[in-house]
Amino acid sequence: MLAKVTSCALLGLEGILVQVEVDASFGLPSLTIVGLPDAAVKESSERVRAAIKNAGLQFPRKRLTVNLAPADIRKAGPAYDLPIAVGVLIVSEQVWPQATEGALFVGELSLDGTVRHTNGVLPMAALARQAGLKRLFVPAEDAPEAALVAGLEVIPVESLGQLAAHLQGLSPIPPFQPDNDAAALPPPAYSADFADIKGQEHVKRALEVAAAGGHNVLMIGPPGAGKTLLARSMPSILPAMTLEESLEVTKIYSVAGLLPPGTPLIRHRPFRAPHHTISHPGLVGGGHWPRPGEISLAHRGVLFLDELPEFGSHTLEGLRQPLEDGLVSIARSTGTLTFPARFVLLAAMNPCPCGYYGDSLRECTCSPATVTRYQKRISGPLLDRIDIHIEVPRVDYAKLTDERRGEPSAAIQARVEQARELQRKRFAGTTLTCNADMGPTEVREVCRLDEAGRSLVRAAMQQLQMSARAFHRILKLARTIADLAGSERIETVHLAEAIQYRPRQAG
């Protein structure tokens, strides 16, 4: 007898339908799995055998062959335990095949028959709806995540015995009913607020501009000036994510297995701060079977690289293409996968190895050659892709002891939201979400200058020896500053502020 049960494989961030075919024949009792399974899938045979027995069901004493089709796509992870077990129950005539029609099954089995959490349920649910399937059987703890996809009947399964009783018609499992108030949760609380940062008003302004337009920032200053605190306060002024952006981020974290327990939908913008010892695949993504890296985990959020020159040069150069395109393509002999990587790069560094080059109070102990060599660790092409270069000086005693609080993050976020709303209207009907996403065509249409503005930019390009990329980034930055001011046109004052954020020497 042959049984067919529908399941799903993940290729990058997308799902692919998998037919789990189970055949029973005469011969020595065994369970063989074919169809390019990895070690976790091969071990499924022992988990399924024990789960069926401990659930009070009968494991057939026959030769069982399980084929995971299509056979040329690698099958990884324990998510095939549940569909394999259902297929075994069908060929042993403990469940009728009609009960599984139009349904997709995913889930890992414990030896006692309990159904455990499975990574990547959200893209699997999206695939099920796209394929026209009506029901989705998932682990009970993953049901809220699967229910984010409308138009599916999500069946939460706690154990194999419970599922068998449902398929036999003895004890139906009620479909999962999502909480309608889940989308109306209060905004996330942040550990750092701009009101608690003493001084550095010009840096706060630069970060506000960056948040309003999605621009990249490099902060340069001595140790203890507050660069890390400023960076960790950045999420508190970012605009709230739209539902579409939340689903994009949730899909990435679901596939990576990093979705927080009890959080089916990520509503706050990611903030990733990898250590400088991170490998190239860890930052950009990769591996023999590619997985998303830190730049994809920071999608629609912030990637904070502290002590920027300490990162490996090969690792940093891997950021160049994602910073331009908002995605990263990873090619392997088995194929090419693309992961989204539309993030705000927020980097911090000391001006020299000792950290006090140019400091007003403490003398630098580095030689000029050492300072130059340290700063040259970051390539010109990478620096050219950073819109805002800002110096973060030390904070004096008077400001540190001032009892008055600064402007709270909520007030800054309100201005950022207003600027982003102008950009949403401007880019309605396109894939662009903020000014930093604009290409040359959009820059030419949106960032028109008057004669005074053109003269100012012309002089800046000659003096700062700017590249064509830097020219376009200045125009996009000026457009964001104008949006914050509520101006329809880019004025000279907006251009002047944008130009001051460029480094004084060509990168």
Mean pLDDT: 92
Number of alpha- plus pi-helical segments: 21
Gyration radius over CA = 28 Å
> Total strand count, please?
18
Domain count: the total is: 3
CATH T-level fold name of the largest domain: Rossmann fold
- What's the CATH architecture of the largest domain? 3-Layer(aba) Sandwich
Largest sheet report: 5 strands, parallel
Q: Which structural category fits the helices and strands?
A: alpha/beta
Poorly predicted runs are none
- Helicity range: 25-40%
Assembly state of the chains shown: single chain
Q: At the fourth CATH level, what is the homologous superfamily of the largest domain?
A: P-loop containing nucleotide triphosphate hydrolases
CATH first level of the largest domain: Alpha Beta
Dominant shape:
elongated
> What topology, given as strand order, has the largest sheet?
11-14-17-10-18
